Amino acid sequence: MKKILTVLALTKILTALLITVSFAQDALPATDIYALDISKDSKGKLHFENPYLITKNEGYDNQPWYYADGSAILYCAVNDTFGADILKYNFFQNKTNVLINTPFTAEYSPMVMADKVGISCIRVLEDDSTQVMARCDDKTDSCKNLFPKLTKVAYYAWIDGARAAMLILGNEDSISLQIGNISNGEIKRVAEETGRCIQKVPGKNALVAFVDKSNESQWQIKTYDSKSGKISTVVECVEESEDFCYMPDGSILMGSGPMLWRYVPPVAVATAGGKQAPAPAKDDKKDEKKDKKKAEKNKNWDMVADFRGTAVAQFYRMAVSPKGDKMVMVTYPDDRP
């Protein structure tokens, strides 16, 4: 009789857990990841073409990160009722493998660590509330909390092998930028009211870029110099956008609606290369007026692609390959996440 009651109790616990986790996962959008080719013509204009789907999952596929040799990406996906796991897609083999698969936790924002062995990620624990930055082993699925003092880590970028720039959730959905050192456990708070996107600046060992949202009417991309502690303004964000990524030459890409915009800082290697719209010509005069207004508001940016009428017309997160010849985009079906 005791055994029967024990089994029934365990069944109830597992059923409740499945329902709880299922509801939590339902909140995640059904996003996909597409890959595109990047090329430059004889006049120096960039072309973003040939989008193709690389994720076959019906649910959440998101947060892609390129390997240093550009051969593959890491990303997170929800393939079951429990939570997000870490997957690897190999471009040359056109093959996807599950690297980290944990039954009761969820892993997001995967990156290969400096030792080229560990995989860092944001790990949501069993309570579906605690979010830590962890190092995971793809052989055993075991994970270790890198910063035990921090329990609300949302996003991050590595500055070097020891230091990470982290976006930490606060009260009332506020986010702060904090720098942590895994070698000594030190944590330093450096900026408030930031956005959700943080990127390592290519070729600049000490710099990370983030979005400053302190001015509600105009968000700005800024950099934090981890050597000097200086915060510098780079450029105003594209209208209604906070997700950006860097190209290898130091230029920045942002999306707004179906349009892809590029900003070239004075220190970037390449020039903007003019404007280009690979989508079919537009006949709608209303669209033309909207485009003109966007161009006026985004005066520091060049529109380099218009994806209207394509599979990637609704996109937000992006990543560019280390060679700058490919990129991946996260698309969404309904409202922008």
Largest sheet: 4 strands, antiparallel
Shape: globular
Q: Helicity level, as a percent range?
A: 10-25%
**Overall domain count:** 1
- The strands making up the biggest β-sheet line up spatially as 2-1-24-23
Helix-strand topology string: HEEEEEEEEEEEEEEEEEEEEEHEEE
Give the number of helices: 2
Structural description of this entry:
The chain has 337 residues and is mostly beta strands. It has one domain (2-146, 238-331). 11% of the residues lie in helices and 42% in strands. It contains two helices and 24 strands. It has helices at 2-26, 285-297; strands spanning 32-40, 46-53, 61-66, 72-77, 85-90, 95-100, 106-112, 119-124, 131-136, 143-145, 153-158, 163-169, 175-181, 187-191, 194-200, 207-212, 220-225, 231-236, 244-246, 252-256, 259-263, 302-306, 315-320, 326-331. Strands 2-1-24-23 form a four-stranded antiparallel sheet, with no helix packed on it. It is globular, with a radius of gyration of 21 Å. The termini are far apart.
What is the topological layout?
Elements: H1 2-26, E1 32-40, E2 46-53, E3 61-66, E4 72-77, E5 85-90, E6 95-100, E7 106-112, E8 119-124, E9 131-136, E10 143-145, E11 153-158, E12 163-169, E13 175-181, E14 187-191, E15 194-200, E16 207-212, E17 220-225, E18 231-236, E19 244-246, E20 252-256, E21 259-263, H2 285-297, E22 302-306, E23 315-320, E24 326-331
Antiparallel strand pairs: 1-2, 1-24, 3-4, 4-5, 5-6, 7-8, 8-9, 9-10, 11-12, 12-13, 13-14, 15-16, 16-17, 17-18, 19-20, 20-21, 21-22, 23-24
